[in-house]
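Pasting as-is:
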Amino acid sequence: MADVRTISLVSRAGSRRLPALGIVVGIAAAAALISFVATLVRLPTLLAAVYRFSDAPELSYISQGLATGHGPQLLPTQTSIGVIWFDELLQWLPFRAGVEYWTGPVLTVAMGLLLVRTAHLVLGRKGTLLTSVMLLVLPTVVLWPLLFPDNHITTYAAAALLGWHLVLDLRHRHSVWRSAIVGIVVGIGVVTDPQLLAFGLVPYIATVAVLRRRVTAPQARSLLLTLCGALVAIGLAFVVMNAQGIRTIAILPGGGGLSGVVRGIGLALQTLAWTIGGGWYGDTISVVAVGLCVATALSLVALVVVGVRQRTGAEPGSARLDTSLAGFGLFWGMDFAFLVGAFVFLGYGAGGAPMQGHYLVGCYFAAAALIPAIAVRYGPKSLTRWRSRVGAAALVAVGVFSVFAVNNAVSTATFDASLFYDRLQVPAAADPLPVLLEHGLTHGYAGYWESYDLDWRSDGVLSVWPLLGGAACGGGTGSLCPYAFAPKGEYTPTAGRTFVITPWTGGTCGRSLPSVAIFGPPAVVYERGPYTISVYGYDIASRLSKDASLFC
């Protein structure tokens, strides 16, 4: 009879526990799916808008110039040599533009799958579900850089690859080939985007150093092999780049001293508020954003506190962290800390430019890895009663996350896509593209924001390259000169007529017509909205100044 009562009590406790857990997980998953569906529905519109922001298609035309032998090429250290080489391989394929268009989203999916797989290895099914739910919610400030093939997405994917590789090694699943391949991928990624040092390579080395007493000889050999692969890849990448005439230049903002650090911290906090509150870079911080930030922090702390009390009460003495889980937490924790530290102390917050916050997007993925790990490790094992402190804390946490996800869905659904290309908010009636096509003008020059946009939207019919002017050109205020980050060979004079489009958007130069004293009077002039299309009977590249600085 006693046994029957015991079974009955256990059964009733289990029946209370499972529905509670199921409902809580279901609420979070449903909210995440709502956000994900909103993103999927709007993805074509957002992606098309991104490719009107010339930074997105720029790599395509750099690759085109290199593939046709039009180098040399100067690259800023914020791009991806891997994407450039990949685009070069695609140059003569008819579906090249489509592949380039989806490069960012595909790499994003690959990164997400790696994060989920790593979570499954160290956290099991519960951690897999929690990580998946968090990755389904991508605020606009996070999603926007991921759609760019050259905007650090290779860095985030490489960091996820490195974290997965580290966990496998710490679980005694060694592979010489995997170590070498991961090292090569990371090495290539570091070459033109040093952010991977702070968000990947240095945390990887530091994690192994912290866990050195637990690291076995085979694991240490794997670390060395991975680092050797990275160093070899860095060296070979520079050799190949040198053969192609590619060199890089670091573009770092001024540090600004102590005031720059303060501004950097402020911008980091603003970026956090935009991310959680569904805002856009530069938006005023809403009450919803502040409330969600505070509620997120408090609910996470409360969940951990009651979870720790529940565990220590039931199981005196905490078990030692599994080495792979410890490595997982250390790696992503240091990724988060090092990226924020680099952003603040290298002066990216100097000047307070809101768009500088995009450098912190990697922190979102570090949080997507860390929060499930904290919840699984320190959160409650079960929810035995809805009215318990554990149940209340869990419900509050899920409620906060659900509000965050649903608010994000609303923000994504109503987001003004023109902000993705705010440099080119030109109505159709003012678009110069139809005029160029109507008059058979296919070779010309414009400002940076107009040139790649026209090239991309013409499906390769046009060849429009960016120019600089004014203070950037050594020939004087009336001179024009080639854009520093374009293949130099594209400015070699050819036969036939060319055009220049003025004014140039987003620059301090190129707001007036080309100098008649230098280029002569144009043969024909067309007007289209705010734009003037000056047509010359020769290639004006023959009269461009050869001495130019990086920018106007």
